[in-house]
Each structure stands twice: as structure tokens, then as C-alpha cells.
Amino acid sequence: MITRPDAGDAFPDTPLEKPGGGTVKASDFRGSKLVVFFYPKDDTPGCTTENKDFTALMPDFTAAGTALLGVSKDPPAKHEKFAAKHDLLAPLASDAPEAGLAEALGIWVEKNMYGRKYMGMERTTYLVDADGQIAQVWRKVKVKGHAAQVLEAAQAL
After folding, report:
1. What sign does the dihedral 104-136-150-127 (CA atoms) show?
2. Cα angle at 140 between 63 and 51, to 5 degrees?
3. Catalytic site residue 127?
4. Which residues form the Thioredoxin domain (predicted)?
5. What are the angstrom distances between the C-alpha of 31 and each of 59, 65, 75, 102, 134?
6. Over the stretch 54-111, which tens digit does the pLDDT of each residue have?
């Protein structure tokens, strides 16, 4: 059984690839709150809506002292196209194809669609406090209204 970090645990400091080069990790945000939202795939309906919702609320997250970071297994070049196509403001990062942050969090899971089993990202969001501890986790996220829920929690933290 994979251990899944929860509220009160340290958020893993696994590096992620940024579009345009370089890496980003949770410790880069110490001193401010951080929302890391994991989504399955760029340019799919639910993932596009989720990213647009976080983009729309970005000024409110910034006012609440909270940075945003969207993460999927898509390569950095695909993130660049996705962000440009939909005018996304929340930074995106790419998790390693294998043994990355999603695996460390236990959210790279076996899925089943139409009887076909495959590995995929479980839509999950983490609110990380200024000290790098997980303050709140939303698992198996339903997109509608989710970004607003996360904003409320960030404002209360």
C-alpha cells in the first residue's frame, strides 16, 4: 500500500520541469502559501476548465499570499501550447514520466475506462503552508467550484 501524505505532513520537495527550461520545487515557495493542483492531461475539457478557473481567481490567490502551480505528466512544450491557447496564468510544471512527485504522493494510480486499465493522474489539490507542510488535501476533485473552495481555504490559512 502506498503511503499518501496528508494534512500535517511535509510536502515532498521533488523537482518538476518548467516550460522554457529549469525546474521548480515546493521549497522555492517557502515563506508563502502554495496551491499545487494535479490534473490528468492538458487540453482535455475538465483539465482546461480547472486551469481556467484557477487563472480567473489568480488575483485573489495572490492577494491571499498564495502561489499556484498546476502539474501533470505532459511535457513542458505541451504545457506552453496549452497555456498560450487558453491564456492560462497559473504556472504549469511537468512531473517526471516515472518516479516523480505524483508517485511520491500516491496519486499516480491505476484507472479503468471502458474496461481498459491504465496508469493516470488522480485529480488532487494540495494547499501547502508557508513552512512547506500540507495544510489541506482535496482528493478525486470534481472541477466545478473547486478553485473557489481552494481559494476559501487559502484565505483562511
Report:
1. negative
2. 40
3. no
4. 5-157
5. 18, 9, 28, 23, 14
6. 999 999 999 999 999 999 999 999 999 999 999 999 999 999 888 899 999 999 999 9
DSSP 132: S
Residue 3's pLDDT is: 73
Number of Cβ within 10 Å of residue 122's Cβ equals 19
151: left (phi over 0), alpha (psi -120 to 50) or beta: alpha
Task: Evaluate whether 151 touches 61 at the Cβ level (below 8 Å).
Answer: yes
Contact 128, 5 (CB under 8 A): no
Distance CA 147, CA 50 (A): 7
- For residue 29, the SS3 value is helix
CATH, domain 33-156, list 1.20.120.330, 3.40.30.10, 3.30.70.420, 1.10.10.1150? 3.40.30.10
